[in-house]
Amino acid sequence: MNTIKKILGVLFILITIHTSAQVHDKSWRSITENKEGEWFASDEAKAIAENVLLYQRNIGGWPKNIQMQMPLSSAEKQQLIALKSDLHDITTDNGATYQEMVFLSKMYRQVPDERYKKAFLLGLDYILEAQYDNGGWPQFYPLKKGYYTHITYNDDSMVNILDVLKEIKDKTDYFSIKPSNETIQKVQLAFDKGIDCILKTQYKQNGVLTVWCAQHDENTLLPAKARAYELPSLSGQESVNIVLLLMSIENPSKEIVNAVDHAVIWLEKTKITGYREDRFPIENSTKKEKVLVKDPNADPMWARFMNLEDNTPFFCDRDGIKKASYAEIGQERRVGYAWYNDRAKKVLKEYPSWKKKTETLTEKVIQKTNSAPKDEFNIVVDKNGSGDFTSIQEAINASKAFPSERITIFIKNGTYYEKVKIPSWNPQISLIGESREKTIITYDDYFNKINLGRNSTFYTYTVLVEGNDCIVKNLTIQNSSGPVGQAVALNVNANRVIISNCSLLGNQDTLYISGEGAKNYFKDCYIEGTTDFIFGEATALFENCIIHNKSNSYITAASTPKDTEFGYVFKNCTLTADEGINEVYLGRPWRIYAKTVYINCKMGKHIKPEGWDNWSKSDAEKTAFYAEYNCSGEGFQPEKRVSWSHQLKKSEAKKYTSKNILGEDLNLSSQVWNQKKQ
């Protein structure tokens, strides 16, 4: 029995050594591509996971070309710990960050170690942070000087990122780690922006769409140069997985279908037939020489670099001079770089079935675009294609001008990345979301991005309402540009508009209420921001709203016109703030006749005792009207308010009724206002 145990023990050791050697002999990429299973619960996998955690930087990403499976000495581990806060050489190039996230997900499914989950989510945050406003990603983030700042399709860097985001936004089981709903919304937006960037960078040759370069200028979006031998060109390699990604999108837009169609035409046009690439050993070298030989039976292949003007293949040595064949360049570059590939075979194989599948959907979209909805007064928007339209703006554009009765546009759950405008000739429109939490309209314009001069703020809106008597209900409107200055989520430049049960999300200048003489109503809303996030000249009543500060700053910046009786009135609202926020003013005057009143509101401790600021306008202390009545909470300190503000008497507060504030317009039917009670 002891002999058998010894034999079994030796066999176990030999098997373990053999398995370990097999894994360590593999590349890191191939290990991350291992099929999910018990191996990811092994001690060996756990040891590799420790290395992955060590190599991750605090910002969330990883450096490239690291063989994570190789054992580390104590000194190497200490060195990696010291590098945690270093911001250099963190990238998504050569599979970095992507591969580590895939590996951690496979580990977590077998071993639910919270450190794996935390590292994965930190990597996801890194990807989201690294994205350009135009939707692309650089090769390195934080940015590294040189060609590394270009939008990088090279070695499938951006496609890998979008593959990660697609799995997460689609809520598949590919990743075992599930982000929060808030993060998934950010992922959806980032994915949509990425696809938009792909569509915008597809190169036009003599006005006709073709494919993509390995990298594109981050500002002009045109093909750009990387290393000396990587000149601006059309890529027969990087373009392939871009096309496959576009083909993987369910219910593709007509723009995506058009992009794929033209890319396939180009790939058919540029395939090289009748040749194959042969390789033979080079003396005293591990590399093999390459040579093209004629072979009428060879599968088609594509050159990695083709001229932008006429699609002819070219090759470069490190001197950057184009050559017509790789026989004309030095051996080092000839054998050390992939100049030909056959990857596009997969596109050409899958395209016919994809095209057949999308033709029916495309026809339906065309029919819907060219025809009126089934019920012109009740329109359905569904980004997945089951409604009358797939975009909100298309539904508005198809709506009757100056309709005889209210037009209701019902918006199904989904994240709608679009800039929405309800024109003045479209009054009496209702935008009704399926749910406040899951019907999201988002866009990411901001002052410097718009760059139209000093008034750029007013063009940054996600949603602009110019049609009188409009109702917006049960949805979220977001400016997702982040803390980058003035960036409007909702601009209401109309009269008698109701915003009910909505979330208005942004930072500086979230809600702009414009139009002299306009009177609008906000009920049961959540409104967040940083500085002056409720501003403008219109009169507005806010009832039962949550007003949330994300920074120490100012809630309101009213610009109430002179002789206007009411400005902003907040009734029964709750004022909240992020943790650590403790110096917030109730308002400051954009114009000196600003009027803002809080009645029966609960104020958190983040409200400063003085309450109000004059914005360095001493005249405003005489002309502005800032007041409170019967408020509560730690932030309500009436005895410490600035001397030029007011605490209303009960008799004075009585005039702040809905009827007095919003008025009675004879052209306004009671039905419109009654919808606020639904």
Automatic annotation (TrEMBL):
InterPro entries hit by this protein: Pectate_lyase, Pectin_lyas_fold, Pectin_lyase_fold/virulence, Pectinesterase_Asp_AS, Pectinesterase_cat
One Pfam match: Pec_lyase
Residue positions of the active site: D532
Gene3D superfamilies with a match to the protein in the record: 1.50.10.20, Single-stranded right-handed beta-helix, Pectin lyase-like (2.160.20.10)
Keywords: Aspartyl esterase, Hydrolase, Lyase, Signal
Presence of the UniProt keyword Signal in the record: yes
SUPFAM superfamilies the UniProt entry points to: Family 10 polysaccharide lyase (SSF81853), Pectin lyase-like (SSF51126)
Position of the signal peptide: 1-21
Positions of the Pectinesterase catalytic domain: 378-663
A GO biological-process term: pectin catabolic process
Broadest EC class assigned to this enzyme: hydrolase
GO CC entries: cell outer membrane
Organism superkingdom: Bacteria
Catalytic activity: [(1->4)-alpha-D-galacturonosyl methyl ester](n) + n H2O = [(1->4)-alpha-D-galacturonosyl](n) + n methanol + n H(+)
NCBIfam families per record: pec_lyase (TIGR02474)
Annotated protein name in UniProt: Pectinesterase
